[in-house]
Amino acid sequence: MNEAELTEAIARANWRFTPYFGLPHEYIMISKDPEVWRELARRIDEEGYWANFYSTKVHYYDFGGWKYWHYEEVLNRAPLPENEIWQTEKWQAALALKGKK
Predict the structure, then answer these.
(1) Per-residue pLDDT reduced to its tens digit, 23-33
(2) Residue 62 exposure: Cα atoms within 13 Å on the Cβ side
(3) Has this prediction a pTM greater than 0.85?
(4) CA distance 18 to 16
(5) Would 5 disulfide with which of 1, 61, 65, 70, CB 3.0-4.6 Å?
């Protein structure tokens, strides 16, 4: 899948939003979006980079203003710092949850 095809597939995927206690992100399931899930997982595994998520090393891949990572059947994404989506009400409200339980 080339860059343009991947961009289109990502736009069509059924991303679900979760505020996750101030660590907002979106995710898809392999059972719902297998084509885009597999392509992004392949890129994460083959072209990605390791970084810390608190004390855990996670393999990430950046594409189109988003950081992607996967775990079992879930593939996640969060906006990179320069992504304008952070300025939207939904994402700002989710950030405000950080530290609240």
Answers:
(1) 899 999 999 99
(2) 9
(3) yes
(4) 7
(5) 1
